[in-house]
């Protein structure tokens, strides 16, 4: 049904989305905790920067990534010189782009979940002998789990669909950075590619639907585990 | 011994409180809402850092502004029962109970879960989720959870105020059993005089961020100069009494107090039990001659210790052996009877108005 090239695009998309979400999730959780529970000067600025990818055109995000993480960019150059890590024209760059663009989804969902938790519970845990890390792991994180899960699934789905930032930052290289949306775009551009585009589009719809159903099922299961 | 001497100001409210609580029994922080009771409790628990002063428990300094000592809440081993229980909704009742015990360094020498479950009647609840519990059940679990961490001190922050009358009546006996059987000193924060009278041994009376009085429950609640703080309608003195005998035919119990006998509707307690009675000031009637032909069964021969008038009302402090009663009558009655310190009078009390 699917050609090897199409399967390759599918697997690449899944891998990029998975790596993007897995790497961003701990950072997103930390940032969400910071924004939800700590008052510090410049909080509004941090909040703004976190949400920037949500309102900036993806192409601008890709451009910013290119000048920052390109081999001659300040961060990318250093990473390349010191560790030999290269993001441009590589699937890891695509994952980075997907992670940055979908970061606000994760932070928002987790932050809302943490803000919904009664801060008195963590105080009660403190009086019962739980230190700060213990309180986070045994109270805040389990209670925020539905939000963490929802954020991760939304970010995963959005990563699968990321187009502008990826094509701007790491280009459209078959087998390396050509994810599903890029493959669909390429198929539409080439003569006689309509059938392939339709198949890949159908696949995208199926993936998105599966993601939504999975998210709903997971949320329900977590709620039941927590007795609510 | 718990010694507290702290200063804290927020907005236009300034708190300056100093008191000590003995390492046994229940000390109540009593006062109207906004007196600063909860601020003090949070400072002792380590949930609030006062702006100045010192808090020490036994020989250990928990907080000292001068030397910049602040022991964090999770290292204080001070148990807290909050107004709303604050059970962890994602854990079962059993895991809630064990939360503090699992984190206590010497939990094994403390109470085991079995006796605490029995003491608080939690047997049927262990596998349940806290979300499914009634308000009263939740407070009992919160009590058990705090007790099982083997606290050095137990702080109760208005533990009954979120409950309706029926639930309060359900929890009070558990709190009494806890006081009598657990050997953990307690600090009870409350604005309900009946709770304090029933549970506490000592009272620290707070008003507008200051200590107005500090002493035994009987002393503080019979002081006339504090009548405006100990309440108008519900105010009353506390008497220590001993069950002397029962009258099954009439369903009554006779109790002896210093220099007199009080008759109450039947108490389910063995002869010789010590009981505290709260006699509301408004329920004590005075007579200069021994009344005849009245329905009240309790007529105590007392001596007027002091009279304080306040508008149309007069508060009369009455000495009964070593204890005190307060009667709230009109100023007209006080003048009519020409009440003066040292004068012997009779205090008439209706049995059904007395709280035990």
Keywords:
heterodimer; A: 228 residues; mainly alpha; MetI-like fold; 80% helix; globular; B: 356 residues; alpha+beta; Rossmann fold; OB fold (Dihydrolipoamide Acetyltransferase, E2P); 6-stranded mixed β-sheet; 5-stranded antiparallel β-sheet; 20 strands; 21% helix; 37% strand
Describe the model.
The complex is a heterodimer of chains A (228) and B (356). The model of chain A has no long low-confidence stretch (mean pLDDT 90). Helices cover 80% and strands 0% of the residues of chain A. Chain A has one domain: MetI-like fold (Orthogonal Bundle). In chain A, 39% of the residues are buried. Chain A is mainly α and 228 residues long. Chain A contains ten helices and no strands. Chain B has 356 residues and is of the alpha+beta class. Chain B has two domains: 2-221, P-loop containing nucleotide triphosphate hydrolases (Rossmann fold, 3-Layer(aba) Sandwich), CATH 3.40.50.300; 236-353, RNA polymerase II/Efflux pump adaptor protein, barrel-sandwich hybrid domain (OB fold (Dihydrolipoamide Acetyltransferase, E2P), Beta Barrel). Chain B has eight helices and 20 strands. Chain B has helices at residues 37-45, 93-101, 113-120, 135-148, 165-181, 193-199, 217-221, 331-336; strands spanning 2-10, 13-21, 26-30, 52-57, 60-64, 69-70, 78-81, 153-157, 186-190, 202-207, 210-216, 236-247, 252-257, 260-265, 274-280, 284-287, 298-310, 313-320, 323-330, 344-349. Chain B has a six-stranded mixed beta sheet, sandwiched between helices. In chain B, a hairpin with a 2-residue loop joins strand 17 and strand 18 (313-320). In chain B, helix 2 (93-101) runs parallel beside helix 4, helix 3 runs antiparallel to helix 4 (135-148) and helix 4 runs parallel beside helix 5. The radius of gyration of chain B is 22 Å and the shape is globular. Chain B starts with a strand and ends in a 7-residue tail after the last strand. The relative contact order of chain B is 0.12. Chain A binds chain B through residues 118, 120-121, 123-131, 134-135, 138-139, 142-143, 225-228, and chain B through 45-47, 72-80, 82, 84, 86, 88-90, 92, 99-100, 103-104, 129-132, 145-146, 149.
């Amino acid at each position: 049904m699917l050609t090897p090239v199409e399967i390759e695009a599918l697997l690449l998309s899944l891998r990029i989305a998975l790596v993007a979400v897995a790497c961003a999730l701990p950072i997103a959780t930390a940032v969400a905790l910071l924004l939800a529970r700590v008052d510090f000067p410049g909080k509004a600025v941090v909040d703004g920067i976190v949400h920037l990818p949500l309102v900036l055109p993806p192409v601008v995000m890709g451009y910013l990534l290119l000048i920052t993480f390109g081999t001659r960019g300040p961060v990318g150059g250093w990473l390349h010189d010191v560790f030999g890590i290269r993001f441009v024209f590589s699937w890891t760059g695509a994952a980075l782009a997907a992670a940055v663009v979908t970061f606000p989804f994760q932070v928002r969902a987790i932050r809302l979940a943490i803000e919904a938790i009664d801060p008195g519970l963590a105080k009660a845990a403190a009086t019962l002998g739980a230190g700060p890390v213990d309180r986070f792991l045994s109270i805040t994180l389990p209670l925020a789990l539905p939000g963490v899960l929802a954020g991760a699934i939304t970010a995963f789905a959005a990563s699968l669909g990321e187009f502008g930032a990826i094509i701007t930052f790491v280009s459209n290289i078959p087998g390396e950075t050509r994810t599903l949306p890029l493959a669909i775009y390429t198929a539409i551009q080439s003569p006689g590619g309509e059938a392939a585009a339709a198949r890949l589009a159908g696949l995208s719809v199926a993936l998105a639907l599966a993601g939504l159903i999975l998210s709903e099922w997971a949320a329900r299961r977590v709620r039941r585990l927590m007795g609510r | 011994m718990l010694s507290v001497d702290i200063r804290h100001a927020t907005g236009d409210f300034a708190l300056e409180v100093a008191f000590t609580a003995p390492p046994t029994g229940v000390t109540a922080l009593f006062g109207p809402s906004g007196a600063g009771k909860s601020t003090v409790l949070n400072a002792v628990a380590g949930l609030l850092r006062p702006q100045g002063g010192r808090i020490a428990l036994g020989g250990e300094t928990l907080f000292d502004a001068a030397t910049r000592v602040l022991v964090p809440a999770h290292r204080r081993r001070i148990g807290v029962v909050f107004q709303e229980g604050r059970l962890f909704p994602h854990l079962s009742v059993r895991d809630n109970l064990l939360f503090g015990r699992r984190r206590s360094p010497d939990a094994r020498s403390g109470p085991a879960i079995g006796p605490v479950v029995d003491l608080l009647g939690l047997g049927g609840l262990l596998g349940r989720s806290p979300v499914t519990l009634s308000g009263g059940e939740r407070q009992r679990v919160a009590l058990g959870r705090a007790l099982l961490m083997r606290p050095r001190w137990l702080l109760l922050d208005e533990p009954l105020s979120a409950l309706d009358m029926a639930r309060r009546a359900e929890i009070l006996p558990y709190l009494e059993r806890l006081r009598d059987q657990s050997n953990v000193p307690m600090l009870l924060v409350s604005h309900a005089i009946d709770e304090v009278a029933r549970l506490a041994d000592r009272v620290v009376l707070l008003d507008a961020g200051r200590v107005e009085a500090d002493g035994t429950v009987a002393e503080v609640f019979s002081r006339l100069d504090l009548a405006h703080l100990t309440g108008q309608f519900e105010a009353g003195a506390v008497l220590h009494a001993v069950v002397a005998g029962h009258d099954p035919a009439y369903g009554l119990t006779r109790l002896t107090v210093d220099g007199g006998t009080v008759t109450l509707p039947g108490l389910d307690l063995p002869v010789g039990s010590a009981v505290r009675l709260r006699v509301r000031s408004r329920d004590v009637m005075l007579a200069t001659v021994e009344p005849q032909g009245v329905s009240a069964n309790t007529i105590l021969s007392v001596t007027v210790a002091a009279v304080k008038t306040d508008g149309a009302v007069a508060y009369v402090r009455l000495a009964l052996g070593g204890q005190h009663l307060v009667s709230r009558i009109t100023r007209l009655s006080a003048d009519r009877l020409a009440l003066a310190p040292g004068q012997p009078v009779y205090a008439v009390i209706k049995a059904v108005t007395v709280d035990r």
